[in-house]
Amino acid sequence: MPLHLWLAFLSASLAISLSPGPGAFASMAAGLRNGFLRGYWVVVGLQLGILALLAVVAAGVGALIVSSPAAFEILRWTGVAYLFWLAWGQWRSDGSLASLTAGNGRQRRRELIARGFLVDATNPKGLLFFFAVVPQFLEPELALGPQYATIAATVIAVDMTVMAGYTYLAARAMHWLESPHRVRWVSRGFSLLFILTATSLALFRHHAT
Length: 209
Fold this sequence. Notes:
mainly alpha; 76% helix; single chain
């Protein structure tokens, strides 16, 4: 990939990662509940979800999903349902700081990774982003494998860095949470963010071209 194309893609990757969305909210919620080190496993899961979307696009299945209203609707409503499930879990916080720490059995490493994976892998807007944007940065006359590898490495490096910031800022907020009342309302604030994201996804309409 030529340097000028890579720099342009880097800018696009920064823009999409910095924009608040399901991945950012999931990272912040994980940092708040588990601290930075354990919460960061959600970010690992997010990257696996990104890789899955890129693999779908690279394999050409992305074109099939985007052009098939039924397939797209299944993916969209799966993402909506999962985000509402995350919102319900945040809303039900009992307000104790202990419930937000790494010792909570509901926050085991593999579950955090799975949560991050599902957040990104079921996000049809992410699929549309990769389907619409990635081809603009490919040189058809060059081998596609190395180009996709460069794109994947760029997206993951950028997203892991940005999500580390979101996770760390939320983890630092744990020092401010001195009362169950604050814990409860912060958790419900994240719940509302997930609800708003899910509602936006539910109202999103894709018109196949």
